Amino acid sequence: MQLSEIPKIKHANSDNFFLLAGPCAIEGEDMALRIAEKVLGITDKLNIPYIFKGSFKKANRSRIDSFTGIGDEKALRILRKVSETFDIPTVTDIHEVSDAKMAAAYVDVLQIPAFLVRQTDLVVAAAQTGKVVNLKKGQFMSPEAMQHAVQKVKDSGSDKTWITDRGTMFGYQDMIVDFRGIPTMKEYAPVVLDVTHSLQQPNQSEGVTGGRPEMISTIARAGIATGADGLFIETHFDPTNAKSDGANMLDLSRLEKLLTDLTAIRKVIKSL
């Protein structure tokens, strides 16, 4: 599919990578609008097509007392307000078949979490909404196996799909990115590299996922150099106090420098 098919997308013909970025979870209206405004200002300056990301619900949590959201409809209404306020598209993840139709009424892209990408009914339900479906590669799956997830979307009557690599499990508590997977998966669909989740350190004994945010620039640069069509970056103005995934998020104050560097790398790669 073409980026220009997404409602409200800007800079679709800039030949730059596209960006899915925002907080891990929608914590409230003010924070969502604040982050979206900042990221939009940067991406407009750099001609980067931008889609605001925010989870309306966090269903995959380590502990029962972990933050899961502020309420489904409330969070989805905030995503709609972000879209209407800044005239930008939005993306959120879904976890159940019933989520697909509900979320599709508010956002432009439906994301299938990595742990659920083999759930046929969920993928089909997302595809049948007519929205773009962002398929996150399972941490347990090979790049080649993602062709079958893409085919499920196509068999459901849609070609609106991307693949997002979010790393592969390495032992019990670490993730690695096999950059050979990017050109492989590009044979099936456009490929996004999830920079921040690739740096998670899951399964910590205290039940709170860790991360390596100091490696964000390294992974992002390598992703652009190896041909990723888009990047996925979770960012927050106060990662330490974020209610979800703060350990691997990028501080919002560092985003402009990173995207400026990545845009320069993209230009060099495209010129070769």
Can you walk through the features of this model?
- This protein is of the alpha/beta class and 272 residues long.
- It is built from eight helices and 13 strands.
- It has one domain: TIM Barrel, CATH 3.20.20.70.
- Helices cover 34% and strands 18% of the residues.
- The strands form three sheets. Strands 1-2-3-4-5-6-9-12 form an eight-stranded parallel beta barrel, surrounded by six helices. It has a two-stranded antiparallel ribbon with strand order 7-8. The chain has a two-stranded antiparallel sheet with strand order 10-11.
- α1 (29-46) links the parallel β1 (18-22) and β2 (50-53).
CATH architecture: Alpha-Beta Barrel
Strand arrangement in the largest pleated sheet: 1-2-3-4-5-6-9-12
Domain module count: 1
The CATH class turns out to be Alpha Beta
Which oligomeric form is depicted?
Answer: single chain
- CATH fold title: TIM Barrel
Q: In one word, what is the shape?
A: globular
Overall average residue pLDDT: 93
Derived from helix and strand composition plus strand pairing, the structural class reads: alpha/beta
| Strand residue content | 15-25%
| Helix and strand run | EHEHEHEHEHEEEHEEEHEEH
Low-pLDDT ranges: none
User: Any idea what the radius of gyration is?
Assistant: 17 Å
- The CATH superfamily name is Aldolase class I
List the total number of helices. Answer: 8
